[in-house]
Amino acid sequence: MMFWADSICINQADYYERGRQVRLMSSIYRSAEIVAVWLGPAAHESDLAFIKMKEWKASFDRLKEQFNGSEELAVTSISANDDFYFGPHGSEQQKALEALRMLCRRPWWGRAWIVQEGTIANPARTVLFCGSRSIDWTYLRAALQIHHHITHYQSFGMSTDFSDAMATRLDSFRRDRENGVNIRLLQVLGLIRAYECKDPRDKLYAALGMAMDVNEDDIIPDYTKPLSAVYVDVAKFCISKSNTHRLDFLGEVLRSAPGTVFEYQHERLLPSWTPDWTFRASFHPLEKVLDPYKYGASGYAYNASKGSNGHCYIDEAHLYVQGSVLDHIIRVSSICQWNLAAGGIQAERSWIPEDPSEHYFTGETVMQAFNHTIVADIGRRNLENDSELSRGFAFNWELANRDSNNMSAEDRQMQSWMLADAKITTFGRRVFETSRGFIGLGPAAAQVNDQVCLLLGGQVLYVLRICEDNHPEFVGECYVHGMMDGQACEDELFAIRDIVLV
């Protein structure tokens, strides 16, 4: 039998060999008989975790049969008085949950390359080893779902402390691959940015073998390139691929917000419009597709520029686009800095408008517009398909306030989805109001007097800031209620002009 280990079989000191071998790694893992993951020696009750994972999966499989194979309904049917899963402090159940948590905090989970190593092979052929114990990935998957439900750990990776969420994030990505989701480079990079790597260029190169929109020669790994050039290559790739979603990469830009958990040192050589993949943020860009199995006009989430395409190109450190300034920000809320587990929806409650019955320009009340804004008008309604998204969704405060212990499994699932989707949307963002009364959801770095703009070729709207030299900097993408489906192109102030972002 032939064995292959990347750290041994690749000369890490030879940049040219590394570049060649990186292009082969996807096919190596895909054709492997077994992908073996070594988590380390037994420690922190890891043996108990492995024993319990086998017991939990057997029980979970029986639960799924009761709900016609639905994992979502099966896990939400587990109640707090089920002593097979729940137990008091110091019980075997609690010890097993803590052991699983510690297992998922081991160093292996934090490496960027595991996103490829741990997701390409069939789950039954991906085997986890720890001490003398071993299980395949299907057991871990069931355990992660149960652990998430029991502990109400609904952070969905939204944190600047990633240790507990890495395994869940990785399994979610693995599911998408297994289900045939059309995974694009930006989606892979968005996942990988939370992981660590010794060479920051690997944030891109580790993603290439998993992105379905990247051809072999689109981006060639080159470890002799400076980091800034490597990251600008991502933007160039996105612009070259399509007119209709060429600005989606702007959604991955996360500007520093001083005094918050989103304060960080931006890579100084990167332009404001280039995502800094070195910053380990679990930040979710606004949704760009409603149907994850395709990426075409019928599946786009928004159409702010109404299909209009101006020129768009990169020249050195400048991004040349065309667009229109819609308004400027006059008021901003606090920033949502905590996930559901840590802070619930207290930040969102504090944003509720002072005069909720006031009229909004769409014909709704301000409160109705606000409820659409904090989920960016997108949510899940189909219990048979948890990946199916739809527009026209609004946050339901009555459902959010209900006691989940007195709800059916179906209602609990809808409540869980709504809370999670709202938090994914608001995390790292703040609500803003413009001078014309628009209500929007923008990046944490957004400030009073920032401009709200339409950029041709973009699905969403964007926040820009005029610098001292009168050049605009990019701040982040935003949602403005009532202006996301071409209305901005028909606005009385719509006037296309050239914009050069620095």
Automatic annotation (TrEMBL):
Residues 2-117 form the Heterokaryon incompatibility domain. InterPro entries: HET (IPR010730), HetReg/Transcr_Mod (IPR052895). Transmembrane segments: none annotated. It holds the Pfam family HET. PANTHER family: ANKYRIN REPEAT DOMAIN-CONTAINING PROTEIN 39 HOMOLOG-RELATED (PTHR24148), HETEROKARYON INCOMPATIBILITY DOMAIN-CONTAINING PROTEIN (PTHR24148:SF64). This is Heterokaryon incompatibility domain-containing protein. It comes from Cochliobolus sativus (strain ND90Pr / ATCC 201652).
